[in-house]
Fold this protein.
Amino acid sequence: MSPKADPAPEGDAGVVERRKKSKKPKYSRFTQQELPACKPLLTPTIVISTFSLIGILFIPIGLASLSASDIVVEIVYRYDTECIPQQSQNDKLAFIQSSETDKTCLTTLTVPKNMKAPVYIYYELDNFYQNHRRYVKSRNDKQLRSKAYEQETTNCAPEATTANGSPIVPCGLIAWSLFNDTYSFAIQNKVIEVNKKNIAWPSDKNNKFGSDVYPKNFQQGALIGGAKLNESIPLSEQEDLIVWMRTAALPQFRKLYGRIETDLAANEQISVTIENNYNTYSFDGEKKLVLSTTSWIGGKNDFLGVAYLTVGSLCLFLALAFIVLYLLKPRTLGDPSYLSWNRNPDGHQ
Amino acid sequence: MDGKGWERVRMTRLGGPTASRGREAAQLRQVSSQTVRLGRVQPQAPSHRTIYCNDREANLLARFKVNSVSTTKYNILTFLPKGLFEQFRRVANLYFLMISILSTTPISPVSPVTNVVPLSLVLLVSLIKEAFEDWKRFQNDIAINSTPVDVLQGENWETVSWRKLQVGDIIRVKHDEFFPADLLFLASTNPDGVCYIETANLDGETNLKIRKALERTWDYVFPEKASEFKGEIQCEQPNNSLYTFTGNLIVENQTLPLSPNQILLRGCSLRNTEHIVGAVIFTGHETKVMMNSMSVPSKRSTLERKLDKLILALFGGLFFMCLIGAIGSGVFINRKYYYLGLFEDVEQQFNPSNRFVVSILTMFTLITLYSTIIPISLYVSIEMIKFIQCAQFINKDLHMYHAETNTPALARTSNLNEELGQVEYIFSDKTGTLTRNLMEFFKCSIGGVSYGVGITEIERGQAQREGRALNEIQKSDTVAYEKGFNFDDARIMRGAWRNERDPEIFKEFFRCLALCHTVLPEGDESPEKIVYQAASPDEAALVTAAKHFGFFFYRRTPTTVQLRESHVEKMGNIQDASYEILNVLEFNSTRKRQSVVCRYPNGRLVLYCKGADNVIYERLAGTNQDIKRLTREHLEQFGSSGLRTLCLAYRDLAIDTYENWNEKFVQAKSSLRDREKKLDEVAEMIEKDLILIGCTAIEDKLQEGVPDCIDTLSRAGIKIWVLTGDKMETAINIAYACNLINNDMKQLIITSETDAIREVEEKGDPVEISRVIRDSVSHDLKRCLEEAQLDLHIAGQKLALVIDGKCLMYALDPSLRVHLLKLSLNCSSVVCCRVSPLQKAQVTSLVKKGARRITLSIGDGANDVSMIQAAHVGVGISGLEGMQAVMASDFAIAQFRFLKDLLLVHGRWSYIRLCKVITYFFYKNLTFTLTQFWFTFHTGFSGQRFYDDWFQSLYNVIFTALPVIILGLFDKDVSASLAKKYPQLYKEGIRNTYFKWAVVAVWAFFAFYQSLIFYYFTTTASEHGHNSSGKIFGLWDVSTMAFTCVVVTVNLRLLMACNSITRWHHLSISGSILAWFVFIFIYSGVMTPNDRQENVYFTIYVLMSTFYFYLTLLLVPIVALLGDFLYLGLQRWFFPYNYQIVQEIHRDEVESISRTELLEIGNHLTPDEARSYAIAQLPRENSKHTGFAFDSPGYESFFASQAGVYVPHKAWDVARRASVRSSKRTSQR
């Protein structure tokens, strides 16, 4: 005999009520699935007009972006190999690690076009993994923020404490490896002032780095990772550090070094004095100095403009192609002969 | 024996309470009876229970179970542990539990919130759903447990709730009430201690069963008397056998044996009896019906199983990605990156001196990082979608509400919705499903003249196709119509037959109808109020017909049948006559006829016989060829109109002939061996030289809209098989009427009713029989297969296979199964007749497992339960009395025709929606994870996360959660009416068009493409990106940008996937995007004092202060979606799906709102509409089948129980009996 289920739920209790009340479901658009809806169909017209629209929209944006990027004047100078004296070229590492060697490096840059102030000074590092997991987390935001949390060095190993156990402020690998090349500029022996104020995002300065937190025990260990900090200046004023600690997304990155607040004329010769202190040689990193103006779009960045232009023209091309296609092989909307069972009535098995 | 039993009972009474039931029952019994000591608690003998009627205190010791029933899964204490355990049985949840644990270790790149938050949300939602469902069960239990019942308290009936009932209580159950527990039947208001019960809840049979109380207890009907009743019942322990019961009732030192005939089971209801009195013997979970209750095996849909494969593929992808990352990390790690601080004691994961360990640990790191590739909220979203689809859409669909029975559709499980969209084979029961099981006397042929002016649906359809008008005779107003009688002909109604040419033959005809049957009259003995209880509705229809012709059968005694005959001699004259029934030669499937020998009040001895035309014709006397020829013509005519025919004949017997024969009959009846065979042989001797009277034609009414529904479903590419316990003739008859078979089709018939097989069967050697049948079946199969291939491929003819149960038994044998499957898959329709419930299930699983197609079984009775459970989807017909099929089913609908809505509308939509939901989930998680993956390459394979922890944890549960659910609920490619108008659209589901690997691959490709766009566009554009203040972005600025693009794009992509966009779509999509912005504004704007790395602090504000943000936000989503857009455009242009063309055809139509439509046509068709509906597609039919059909399931046992003999049910056990010889069969094909 077939298995039995308990009939009780319906049978016993239901019977009495069933006779009385109707179980007819109530009408509602929701339950009958008749909610008002628009039904967009991807008809050729819509496809073509969408493509045209995108094309028409994107090309101007692209042109605008490109021209904005075009106004920007940029000087990029890679100095990591050139700033090593000839005799040390074979052992760059020894050169950079020695405290004896003179790391000053002089060079001259030519201004290609007029550069209106402010001219931004960036350093660009390559093959430097600021986004490595071990590196990114090697900081303690609490400690950076407030003096009260000075002892807080979680996540900071191996740069958490000194040998005798007192906390390093700011702790962690990020701060420890602070970039320490310096640049100074002169035109015709006239020193150009580099403004290093206001190079960090205000939110970082005001909220992430405490004005009562002073560097302590920093770079005191056996290994020196990078720049030292002036212990009398609070972290919130140490903008180099703040910029450095906003870790970059990619292993090739630029960071703002300072600003030149005088206009630079075309063909002017800028003599640059570089203190080539920072060790990128052990991991074959590159170092570049960048001078750049900005426009509304930011620094020199053709990518967005090119992308907009490419996509815009691609869309226009597609729109054209579809129009041609439509003329050559018109598609009747809703032609029943397209239905598979009309195309091959018997062959659907 | 009595004394001894009594003794033991006494002793056990002293012992008692801790009744332990065990497997070592026998052993324990021995022990207990040996070690009885006073004052010590002894276990009650486990083999039986002793009940003291009407004595609660005595029963207290035994601690019987209470009568309250609980079907809940959890209680308050067990809910959490048990519910959580259930949840973690799902692999996905377990996986995320493990990931969550992993993410608390330093290996993890993400904080635990990333995984814990989504997991707990998912668990929370699932647990709430569980709790809700359990709560509903609990409510239901309460409702049942508090149903009132009358219990004897002192000398009065007191109403208490069911749950208060105890074993031994004397209770009263009134008319139409359900029995609250298993009862011992003591007394009834009916004079002879009988009562009628309906067992529909147990076995789906709607005919009444008779129970008879022991004569000794008949008197205890009234409370004063009943309170004196002090019996002891010794009976078996609770068990689940419905048809057995052993026990004794001990009253006043008298031991009376009890049989199942005195037992009233819970779940049955009392009928035709004012009230009964019974003693409770089994309560609550110990009742037989509860012991039988089995949780319906939970089915998983095919789509979900395919989903498992997809998840597995994702795991594969995950592993591959992690492997690449792990190898990369091993290669990358190096002391030269001094700023990473990889000095002497660095933790193992970054220790360059052991690169292998670094790789292994990074592997784990990356697994946690990429865990989002497995869509954690997918399962819970699907569950919610399906749940709402069931509860709100299927259950509340007005198109599937049946007004007559007040039954809406009911989805009993919510995990098979999409399976409904992929059904390719439907296995349907016949009676109650395709037909109403409502037999109506429709036409007849008496003495060679055809009577009855009705026109069947088939005739109507035929006429319609041929364009000829039927001159329908207006039915006279006074036409008598009642259930079972739909006949009108002025020539014979209201006594007019007396004016016909030969009134005598009319009398024979009507008397044959009134006498030759096994019907029981019930109720008031007036023509209006009488109710006929018959084993088959055919019989009732015939007796009802006789009543209308003036031969009113009103009383049956064991030896007589009493008729009230009017118009016999003179118009208006009424006269009661008592006919003595001397012998009844029962109907069975081999004899195909039934006879009674009766003696008229005037002493005339007549044998009346009714049966199949071929059987009767063989036994006719050689006279009056005219009537034979005319009747034969009428039979064919009736048959082709889809009517079920029976031939009537009689024979006058001489007294000595009869007595001679009767001797042999009595002998045969009392023989112990081969009684049935002998009885059949004896019957042969007297059922000969018959005189043909005429024939009857009964309409087996189809359910409304069945032919139309079948036609629509078959155009949808669904193949419908009819599996029925009926005879081949009936089955073919119905198949014709339902348009499953028509005359354009070639019928392949495999039957065991061949001469060769009969011959062997006569010899009775079972080994030989089985060998011969097997050979013949094997031969037939091969022959049919050849024919089929020839016809199908060369002639292109459609095929129909008809096979009977006995052949099926052999054809299902492993060696022949392949042939059967091949053959049946080639046929457009298959009819299996005479099949047992088990075979129904076997055929279903043959197709399910052998052909790997999605199957659906639909049925209404207990005999369909096994097939309903075997199929992928089981559908029960609800609204009628029987609940068995419904209880076992996944969906319950009131009418077969609702299948159209259930499959073509709900199933199709569910399938398409679910496919979209799944592929979309797959896409959005893959896209998200891949951006993460590209980032890994630029982080020295360190496993640094690209996104903030909270971004990642809320991505699945907030920012992209709701729109996909909306899509899963509201997406509609074509409206319901179009889905039914173009049933071919359904084929896309059968072919699984929307969830093929190709579809997944397209999504995967675009996920790949989009993730590249997201990652590279945002990072490249940001490289020098700054605003005019020259400041530079950090990692978290870029990642916030990328994440914004992902959220916007992924949500917009959903919009592109929608076919219809409601305001819910707008709300949810814009809501999700808005949620992200609100979140990030708050999240990055607020500094919290607790120790979190303020990575994303202010990022969004920094970003929004730059043009870069706006330019990128416009560019990236559009570029990302451009690929999809192009693909969709091209696809629609050059390779449109069928639904897309249908959309286009009807693009300008405003979707009709069904409210008006429903009001106009109502929910159910009027009978006339239904008829015209039904006929529309009926085939041209000129088959020579005469339509003999007469079913009587459980016929013999019905008769036996009427005589007070209890016969356990052996319904559908058709293959059991070897058919006995009957000479050459006239073909009915």
Remarks:
- Chain B touches chain A through 143 residues (CB under 8 Å).
- The radius of gyration of chain B is 37 Å.
- The longest helix of chain B spans residues 898-937.
- The CA atoms of residues 347 and 358 of chain B lie 10 Å apart.
